[in-house]
Amino acid sequence: MTLNLSIGTLLIRLAVGSIMLIHGIGKLFSIGPATMPMTQFTGFLAGLGIPAPSVVAWIVALVELVGGLCILVGFLTRFAAFAVAINMLAATLLVHLPEGFSDSELTIVLCLASFALVSIGAGTLSIDELVVDDRSRSMLPVGE
């Protein structure tokens, strides 16, 4: 992997990972700039008609927190990025897009950037680079 691609991948990881981590912390610990306590988030999901809103709220919060942290440090990046991408796709379609395109721009970018990480992986500046076997790097049936 070239240095430019490694730096570019790192920048994508820093952006996606930090945003997701901050939102997960806001939900689970009710602190930070993106605070929405779990009770409020559960009520919000219930208002949308989401089945089992308490369970879904915990899954979303954990994907944001754990997935964001994994993406940030580059550990199990493809799996974490896939979970975050699905999370952001659901948030876009169910919450933000019905409010208009401007309200959904961030979730669309986070979703697409996460799918990009699924495709290209964490890059050389990551924990994955240190611990993942070369033969298992790609989740996709395409050459690297």
Automatic annotation (TrEMBL):
It is found in: Cell membrane. Keywords: Cell membrane, Membrane, Transmembrane, Transmembrane helix. It is a multi-pass membrane protein. The chain crosses the membrane at residues 6-29, 41-60, 66-94, 106-127. Its main location: membrane. InterPro entries: DoxX, DoxX-like_oxidoreductase. This is DoxX family protein. It comes from Haladaptatus pallidirubidus.
